[in-house]
Amino acid sequence: xxxxxxxxxxxxxxxxxxxxxxxxxxxxxxxxxxxxxxxxxxxxxxxxxxxxxxxxxxxxxxxxxxxxxxxxxxxxxxxxxxxxxxxxxxxxxxxxxxxxxxxxxxxxxxxxxxxxxxxxxxxxxxxxxxxxxxxxxxxxxxxxxxxxxxxxxxxxxxxxxxxxxxxxxxxxxxxxxxxxxxxxxxxxxxxxxxxxxxxxxxxxxxxxxxxxxxxxxxxxxxxxxxxxxxxxxxxxxxxxxxxxxxxxxxxxxxxxxxxxxxxxxxxxxxxxxxxxxxxxxxxxxxxxxxxxxxxxxxxxxxxxxxxxxxxxxxxxxxxxxxxxxxxxxxxxxxxxxxxxxxxxxxxxxxxxxxxxxxxx
Length: 360
Description:
The protein is of the alpha+beta class.
């Protein structure tokens, strides 16, 4: 069973509670009467009778942890369309919010003298072609120098380049959508006079759509592009997709890394900028469910549990918190089977010989 939670907050709260218990433990260590039923007389250091403790048998299970972070939806592509020529806006063909097919006209500019420039360029090409043909014949017969031949060839190439440019300028009076996208905004009105490079419209592609979030340095090391992930939208809808990008650069203020998951959005109903939860499953690993009340802290602040080995000696085992809930914590880094001390752990240390009573 997957346990969804914010691991960093949960771990911090658990360690803070244990630290408080550790700091206050001195005032309770001498109160042996409260635990006499299970621990015997801990004041008597010379007693040969082992301390009594209660233990719980625990077997590891396969736990699949997951990273869960809050993010937002984002368009997979966006572009600001700009004019490639100067001109006056003649017509705006679509309203904001409209889905436009690739190659469809969005804005038309006045053609002005661009058609005449095309005709002029075409006539100049025909002229240069005739001049070049004549120069070529005369050069072959020896009546014209190689220099004049090269000059006529250069003139022809220049005329063809001007013809190509004038035709393209005429085409650019019609501003087209580069890909299927939604017009999110216009920056011009009919009648505006534009310079080359002026912005005219903002367009976004919502199919597919992304869920963008930020993950910690630790999590970045275990996530790979192409990994299967899940997104939960504000309305509770769950979508499955793949991680397509993990930033190689950390955010300076938070030291977190941007990650993007791609999900399908054929009907374009998922908008950009809405809150979404990003859930990234990690590899399965053996784990135990342990009550938070059973954790102990060493003098150097190491978090772990006290267990009893096969010879009834106490051992301290450090743990790695993987997940949990309000009632129990899922921990890793432990053997497959354990005998966890549930009562009396505060009165024994590693290496102590104990007498055990098993919980049902």
